[in-house]
UniProtKB/TrEMBL annotation, chain A:
It holds the Pfam family SBP_bac_5. Belongs to the bacterial solute-binding protein 5 family. InterPro entries: Peptide/Ni-bd, SBP_5, SBP_5_CS, SBP_5_dom. It is found in: Cell membrane. The keyword Signal applies. This is Periplasmic oligopeptide-binding protein. It comes from Neobacillus vireti LMG 21834. It is a lipid-anchor. Residues 26-49 are annotated as: Disordered.
Automatic annotation (TrEMBL), chain B:
InterPro entries: BPD_transp_1_N (IPR045621), MetI-like (IPR000515), MetI-like_sf (IPR035906). Belongs to the binding-protein-dependent transport system permease family. One of its GO terms (cellular component) is plasma membrane. It comes from Neobacillus vireti LMG 21834. Residues 93-304 form the ABC transmembrane type-1 domain. GO terms for biological process: transmembrane transport. SUPFAM superfamilies: MetI-like. Pfam families: BPD_transp_1, BPD_transp_1_N. The chain crosses the membrane at residues 12-30, 92-117, 129-150, 185-204, 240-265, 285-311. The keyword Transmembrane applies. This is Glutathione transport system permease gsiC. The lineage of its organism: Bacteria, Bacillati, Bacillota, Bacilli, Bacillales. It is found in: Cell membrane. It is a multi-pass membrane protein.
Amino acid sequence: MKKGLKGLFSVIILSMILSACALDSSSTKDSSASDKKGNTESSSAKSTEVKEYKATNLEALPNKTKARKDTFIAGISAPGGVFLPYFYENGWDGNATDPMFAPLVNLDPTGKPVGILAEKWDVSSDLLTYTFHLRKGLKFSDGSPLTADDVAFTLTLLHDPAYAGEQDISLTAIKGGKEYKEGKVKSIEGIKVVDKETIEITTEEVNAKSLLILGGQVLSKAYYGKDYQFGKLDYLKELYPKPLGAGPYKFVKYVPGQEIRYVANEHYYAGTPKMKNLIFKVIDTSTSLQLFETGELDYAGFSADDDTVEQLKSLGFANLEVGPVNDYGFIYVNNSRPQFKDKAVRQALVYGLDRQKIVDVKFKGYGTVANVPVSKVSWAYNDEGINKYEFNAKKAKELLDQAGWKVGSDGIREKDGKKFVIRYLTRTADDPIIPIAKENYQDIGIKFEPEIMDFNAIVAKLGTKDYDFAAVSTSQILDPSDPVEEFATGNANNAAGYSNPKVDELIKKGLNTLDIEKRKVIYHDLYKELNDDPPVILIHYRQSAKAISGQIEGLHPDNFTGISASLPNISIKK
Amino acid sequence: MKQYVLQRFLQMIVILFGTSFIIFFLFAMLPGDYIDSNISLTPQRAQELKALYGLDQPVLQRYFTWLGNALHGDFGYSLKHQEKVLSLLNKYVWNSFFVAIFALVLTWSIALVSGVISAIKQYSWFDGFVTFFVFAAMSFPSFFISLLFIKWFGVDLQILPIGGMIDTGSDSTGLAHLLEVGKHMILPVTILTLLSIGSLTRYFRTGMLEVIRQDYIRTARAKGLKERVVIFKHALKNAILPAITLLAFELPGLFSGAIIMEQIFNWPGVGRIQLESVSFRDYPVLMAFTMFLSCLTIIGNFLADVTYAAVDPRIRLK
C-alpha cells in the first residue's frame, strides 16, 4: 500500500505545516462493528470515543448545497497533478487517484483485507504463493478489458530499475524480481498469468503485508505499457495528467491549485455510481470551516476542539462524527546513548512525565494518553495487562536512585561525573511538552533543554542518532507492524537505537502469519514487552471531527481508506 | 553613459553567478534532502533513489551539473511534482503576478495621493486620519485581517467568495471567466494593498515634506507661481525621485507570491509551491525559483541605476 505510506507521510508533513488535514486518508471513523468479532479489547470504552451528531435541521442547508443535484464536493489539501498510482510524490495525489484506480484488495473499515477487483484470493499453505481471482468482465473506464495481464504488467513495472516512486516492491520478495531488476532476465519468474482472470504470484519470504502490496491498484497494460521498454519510464510522465483506471470515477479535468473534477465511470464493476459528479476542491485548513459553513464543501475533516465541534453542531445541517485518528504521538528516546541504555531509567522517564496533562493541554479533551504503540482503531489494539505508567514522580525518583543517578549539589542528578541533561527536539515553540516536561523533569532532578528545528532537520538527526529526545507522530497505521517494525535490532530505521531479543522475535513472528487472530496474540505479547521495556515515550492518541453535509447519504469515512471506499455509494437525499 | 551601462551590466553577470553558487550551497547545507525526509523508505531503496536523482554525488559536482543544464535552459524536473520546473512555475507564477500587479498599482496610487496631500496639509485632520489609518492597516497581522475579511464578506454578508480563483465546478470562459476571477481577486488584492500601503504613504509624505522646505521651493513661491504649480511641477518631481529605487525593488515582489495570503485564500499562486519546495527539499524548483527572483532583484537594481543615471547626471559622473 504505497498510497498509505506515502500519503500518510505527506499527511504528517502537511499537518505539521498546516496543523491539520482535510481529506487525509487517516480519517476517523471508528466503526463499532470492528469490536463485534469478540476480541478482548474493552469495546465499551472504545465506542464511547466515537461521538455522532446527526443533522437536526436540513432547512438550514446553505443555498449552494441545495442547488447541487448531482455533485459531491470534498476538500483536499495540496494535490500536485501526478495522477498515476505508484508514481506520484505527493500523498494528496494518492487521495486524488483513489477514485480513479481501484485495487485488487483494499482494507475494510476495521483494517481487514477485502476484495475489490479481486473476487477472492488464495494463499498457499506455506504462505508464499498468492492466487488472485479477478471478477468477471472487469473493464477500465475506457471500456477496454482488465485482465490478469494488466496485474502482471503493474507488478513488473514496479520492478523496473528506472522506477523512482515510493512503492518498495522488494518487500514482497517476488521470486525472480531481483534478477529482473538487474536486467538478467526478461520476465519475472514468480508472476504467472494462469488465465484471463487468474494470476499466481510466488514470493520467497512470508510477509503479512505482501497481500496489500501485490493486490494494489491496477494499471492498464494497453494504455500505460504500450511504449514500455526495460529501464525507460520517462514516457509515463506524458500520461500523469491523463489517468485511466478502473475505479468508480473517471477523470475530467484538473485546474491546478483549484480543483479536480471527476465523473461517474459507467464501466465500474459494481455499477455506475449514483452521484454523477465528484469534485475534490483544494482548501486550506484555516478556512475549511467557513467553506463548509457556506456550502462550498459537502465533506470536510477538522482537528477536533470544542470551538470547532460546537460551531459544526450549531450549523444544524451537518452530520458530525468525532472519533480517534489512526496514529499516535510519541517521543523518540535515543537508547544508544549511555544514560538511556538502562531500562529502569527509561521507565523513570515515563513515570516522571505528566502525560495526562500534556494530552489535556494539547487536545483539550479530544485526546487520550497512549500506552500501546498502535492506534485504538486497529484490530491489534489491546491494553489488557498494560502498565499505564500513571504520573508518579516519587517512583521515578526511586528508579533513578536505584540506577545510580544521584542528586548533585545543584539539584541535577549525575552519574560517573556526568549530569543528567536531556536535549529535546521539537518543531514548534508552543509544543506543550516543553513547559510540562521541563517542570516535571526538573522536579526529579533532570535538566530538560528544548530545541526547535524543522521537520527535515529532525529526521536527519534521527537518522544519525544525534539526539536525546525528539517529538514525532506516526504515519497512518495500515498494519500493526508498521509503527513497531523499526524497534527490531539492526533495522535500518531503528532511530531509537533499541534492542531487545524478545521484541525482535515477536516482530518477526507478527509478520510470519496471515491469520489475524494469531497475529492479535503475538502483538499483544509484543505490546506487553514494549510496555515493560519502553523504547520510546508514548504520548497521545488524538481525535478528529468529520462533517458531512446533511443531504449526502451513504458516505462513511473510515480510518483506513478515508472516503474513497464509500464513494461508489453516495447519493443526495431526495 | 554607454560605458556606465556596460560596466554595470558586466557586474550584473558576475553577481548572478556568485548568487547561484551561494544559493546552491546554502540549500545543500540544509539538513536532510528530498529522499531523507521520507522516513518510511528502507536504506537500500533510499540509496537507489538517491542514485536515480543524482543526490549521491558531491555537492560541487551537482552544482556544475545544474549550472551546465541551466545555461542550456534546462532547469530539470521537480522531484515533488514530477514535472518540468519551468512548466510548473509557469502554471502558477502568473496567478501570483496578477494579484501583485493590481495590488502594486493600487498601493502606489493611493500612497502617492494620500502621502502628498498629508504632506501639504501637515498636521491637518486629514493628515491625522491617514497616519492613523495606515499605521493601523500596517500593524494587523496578515492572517488575522484576511480571516476577519473572510468572515465579514464571505460568511456573514456572503457577497464575496471565501477563496480560490474560480467558482467550484465552473466552466466559464471569456468575459464571464474574467469577471469570476476578478471577483475572487477583490479580497486578496485589498489585503495586500492594506498591508503595504503604510510604509509607502509615510515615505512619500516624508519625501514631500523635505522637498517643500528647500530653498528652491521658497524661490518658486516668491516668484509668485501658483501653489499648484509649485507643488506638482517643482516639488513632486523631486520628491518622487528616490522612489525609483523602491519601485525597482518591487520587481521581484511581483512574481514572488504572497505566501500567507495565498494560503488563506487558496489562491493558486507560486508562493505555495515555493514554501512546499523548501519543506520537501525539492532542489530543482527551489534553485530555479530563487534564481529567478535573484535575477529580477539584480535586474531591478540595474534598471534603477540606469534610470537614475539618466535622470540625475551627478551619478553618471562618479
